[in-house]
Amino acid sequence: MKEEATESSRTKITVALFVATFLAAIEGTIVGTAMPSITGELQGVQQYSWIISIYLLATVITTPIYGKLSDLYGRKRMFIIGALIFLAGSMLSGIAQSMTGLIWFRALQGLGAGALTTIPYTIIGDLYPFEKRAKVQGWMSSIWGIAGISGPLLGGLLVDYVSWRAIFYMNLPFGIAALILLSRFMKEKLEKKKRHIDFPGIIVFSVGMFFFLYAMSLVRGEGGEAQGGWVTTVLFILSAALLSWFLWIEKRSPEPIIPLQLFRSRLISMANLISFILCVINVAVIFYLPLWFQGVYGKTATFSGILMIPLSIAWPLGSIVAGNMIAKTGLRAICIISACFLLVSNAGFALVDGSSSIWLLVFYTFLSGISFGLTLTALTVAVTSAVGRELRGAAVASNNFIRTLGQTIGITVFGLMLHTGTANDIDPAMLESSLHHIFVWVAWLSVAVLLLSFVTPRQAQEEPLQAGNHAS
After folding, report:
1. Whole-angstrom distance, CA of residue 346 vs CA of residue 285
2. Three-state helix/strand/coil letters over 356-414
3. Are 89 and 112 in contact (CB under 8 A)?
4. Angle CA(346)–CA(351)–CA(353) in degrees, nearest 5?
5. What secondary structure letter does DSSP report for 45?
6. Which keywords fit this entry according to its UniProt record (predicted)?
7. pTM to 2 decimals?
8. ∠ CA 272-274-280 to the nearest 5 degrees?
9. Rounded to an integer, what is the distance from CA 38 to the centroid of its chain?
10. CA distance 384 to 331
11. How many C-beta neighbours within 10 Å does residue 28 have?
């Protein structure tokens, strides 16, 4: 694909990918602002959380599936299919007349979003040589930070001045424009050969992950209190059995959804492990710092959100810097520098108390954002460069999947550690103690990231792992 794409067509394809990624990313944050209006019109407040969680659940499950199918049937074809499903879900969500209907349509949106969150990174890996690829993926990673900042604001404006339905309708013109650009300018040649879809693997993986993610949501309950009892236990047992069966299927499948040979690559294994830990840490920073600002410092929710803006600004900056640095400095250097920032910030979070300056926490928040942007972008570039084209979709998708798994586990574990409800109904001293306990653990996780960074491969570009090869 690199040889066939002119600079002009590459630019148009990249713009289309940026737009699609932004639409999928912002759907995870824009809906939260609109939820009071949605529940006010459609009722069903008891189903409130499912409007957001069903979208994320469907996205998580389909991410590795789209990654592998894009290796088999082409990036362009699978991207278009995913985008059409996403846009259909957006349109139907906009015309939903009940909460139940909206939940189903949000699930449809998520089924399409799995393609939009992973295939763009794979296409960038195909389109650009290593040095340019790193820069473009740095910009693409920054889109998530931009979506995090603009989502709640844009959602509020649309709800106040148009309608909550507009947050879904807005996807249509931009999504269609992205589809037209990609369809017109992306050329892709696939080798003609018989292809096998791993249907047993897809089914067993999807059901197993659904049971696992649903059980995790039951464990979280309200305010981190364990819920579900024996039902939760049964779901965990079933998910463990099904995912074990999935691994057995993958070992024997000619075209596994998640090729296990990927994990024989030292670079990919280290990238996945560090990504997992970083995303566990990320949950603590994003979800529990606002609680600290509100419950310990007594700030309003709005002001707490403003105090988190430095993280949302620093993350895109870190992503762009990583994209420009990695070809010169190598992967290990970026990971070590970034891990030092991460350790300073999280050790700082663990050491502050209610008498500390709030601006000190804001500074640590900025350092965290720089660290997340630097490392996660560098690891994305590393994963796309460590494999050949036949495995790139599966490699990128598995890394994205592991990141989301880290966030899911982090939300649950830290929620159980907190043992509290909301910032309004608890003693600030008790909240401060619980949050301190969480950030002590996060600081130790940061130490683990630093130690792992020292044994990460020096360069991001290894000899590409091809389908059927085994890397040591």
Report:
1. 9
2. CCHHHHHHHHHHHHHHHHHHHHHHHHHHHHCECHHHHHHHHHHHHHHHHHHHHHHHHHH
3. yes
4. 120
5. G
6. Cell membrane, Membrane, Transmembrane, Transmembrane helix, Transport
7. 0.81
8. 100
9. 25
10. 13
11. 19
- 270: closest CA among 458, 121, 135, 463? 458
Please report which helix (H) or strand (E) contains residue 338, including its range: helix 331-351
Q: If you search the block for the tokens 């024997």, which residue do you land on?
A: 252
User: Which residues, other chains included, contact 297 with Cβ-Cβ below 8 Å and sequence gap of 6+?
Assistant: 354, 358
* CA pair distance 381, 136, nearest whole angstrom: 10
CA distance 109 to 322: 31
The torsion angles phi and psi of 223, rounded to 5 degrees, stand at: 65, 20
What residues contact 399, with CB distance under 8 A and at least 6 apart? 268, 271, 272, 275, 379, 380, 383
Radius of gyration of the CA atoms of the chain, in A: 22
Q: Output b/e per residue, 147-167; b: 16+ Cβ within 10 A.
A: bbbbbbebbeebbeeeebbbb
Burial of 451 (0-12, 13-18, 19+ CB in 10 A): exposed
- The backbone region for 194, taken as left when phi is positive above 0, alpha when psi lies in -120 to 50, beta otherwise, is beta
192 exposure class (CB count in 10 Å sphere: 0-12, 13-18, 19+): exposed
Residue pLDDT tens, the chain, 472 long: 444 567 888 899 999 999 999 998 888 778 877 777 887 888 776 666 678 778 888 888 899 999 989 888 889 999 999 999 999 999 999 999 998 899 999 999 999 999 998 999 899 988 888 778 888 888 888 888 788 777 777 888 888 888 889 999 999 999 999 999 999 998 887 776 667 788 888 899 999 988 988 888 777 664 344 455 788 889 999 999 999 999 999 888 888 888 888 888 889 999 999 999 999 998 888 878 877 777 777 777 667 777 778 888 898 899 889 888 888 888 899 999 999 999 999 999 888 887 888 888 889 999 999 999 999 989 988 888 888 878 888 888 889 889 888 887 887 788 777 754 444 455 677 777 888 888 999 999 999 999 999 998 887 665 555 555 433 3
Residue-wise DSSP of 56-112 = HHHHHHHHHHHHHHHHHH-HHHHHHHHHHHHHHHHHHHHT--SHHHHHHHHHHHHHH
- What is the DSSP track for 254-318? SS-SS-GGGGGSHHHHHHHHHHHHHHHHHHIIIIIHHHHHHHTT---HHHHHHHTHHHHHHHHHH
